[in-house]
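hey so i finally got around to running the thing on that chain from the lab meeting. sorry it took forever, my laptop kept dying and i had to restart like 3 times. anyway pasting the input first so we r on the same page abt which one it is
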Amino acid sequence: MIKSLLTITFLIALFMLPNTLFARNPQNIIGDHFEEVASGRRLEIHTNPTGVRVYIDGAYRGLTPLVLEQTVFREHNIRLTREGYRERDFNVLLTGTSSLIVSIQMEELRGIVFVYIQREAGSSYSAPLNPRINTSALGHFLSDIPVPDDNQVILSLPVGFNTIRTRAFGWDDSVVTIFVDEHITTHENIIMRPAIFRMGNAAQNRRRFNPLNPNNLGITVYRFEVTAPGTGTITILNNENEVVFQNYLDVFETPQQQITWNGRDLHGNPLPQGIYTVLIEASPLETPLHLTQQEQGMQPVTLRLETIIDYSAIIIPLSSDTGVSGLKFSPTPHVLPRGSFQFDIGVHAGNFLITHTSDDINDGTQNNESTLGFPFKLNARVSPFNRLELAAALNIIPYPDNETGFGLSASIKYNFPNNNNTPLSFAGGISYAWAGTNGEFPSSPGGGLGLHAPLSLELTNFSIVFCPALFWRSSADFMPTLLFSTGILFRANQINIGVSARYELDFSENILNTRFLTGAEIHFFPPPSNLVFSLVGGLIHQEQFTGAYAGLRIGIIN
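ok and heres what got predicted. didnt touch it at all, straight out
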């Protein structure tokens, strides 16, 4: 009987818990709510917004949210006050047999403001006036309010001082502070003055880029801001000040502007590697008459940037399942250019070899057995410095027997400069991997410390890769596992295809264990997005076991 009562009490508390939590979240308080909860003997007062002063029977007790454990069980008068909000006054009855949770939606005191937006008197400036306004009541100018075509708007603003900012492309911003009264309608005339044409905040997404990279990975985007309608040109000069590219810009109709350049000349041919000067020159469509002669002399305006074309800055999607980027079973010397990154996520399915410990207490032996697994992968690679790349991989492997394995690996890889002008690329890397029970990803060489030396022969569209590596699976292993991997990567405009293989020689425990892995991968990155879709698969042969798996991944590269 007691067990049944406890169960019923638990279910009642479980049922009431969501409502209690709902009431305690100030963002969820809409209207007033009074709830009795069987557990406890206290009074809780919650408000939206918080920070409301609470008076009980005329005595100040604190700010909301307020929890009072020691209360007198009778009727109490509660008064809630906060500047800018209407005062609330009500009574509650505390019975001593339950807790009372009070949730109150405070009513903000507001007033009406009529705003009239006009052009400056006598202005002949013909730029369209399409204003938008925002106020301090909307979160410090984070929200804009569109204005109707008649340039008049009615605002309901909190009582007290409010700041109103009006902005329109081609016009100077107007900022006014007004006092709003609950009982008096406020009228405010806002005068807009034509803006002086200016350009600024110039930037480019890639200062160093490779025009031979595919799609939007082989372009650079110049961004800048203007204060008024205008037009202009972009001119690109080589290191001898010769014009190699020039193009007219569309009429500026918004403050934010951007121009894309693909590193090619006027005839569409890729330009030589080197440093290029970018000049963006613009002038207003119309000069307001009120400008002084000095201000008139500021037109036109020129922005100057510097861009480097570097054909070694290769951005291509790669696998990083083992924590070292490259082909599926072979690291490559390729690294991302500085500031670039790749991130992907995917699922796999296949037949894997796992270690099983005997359930016999007196035995405790470990045996390898094959089972079906569904690895879940998170891979990332990023380049914080030139020629240096960091990579990491997280894998979660659920098995049908409710066992789940976890693993984590990371690496640092440096691509050495090639000063011989030969089509060879060389890098060195160090990696470390950790895995829980049966948490090793199928293509991983295992947990431990690895040293990698990938080398590739770079042809027009192919990379032929070879990578020897040493891998210590534990600090107690004096003899490392030897890894020999090789592969071929084909690079096209929107697709990469690779095949690779790895042979492992493990000399631990004075027994030679071998493992052979081979697989293929396809990375598809359609324009104009930075998304990458990958299909991967492979075969694993170890001892008397041969398994296969395949996977699908989606990611982003930039």
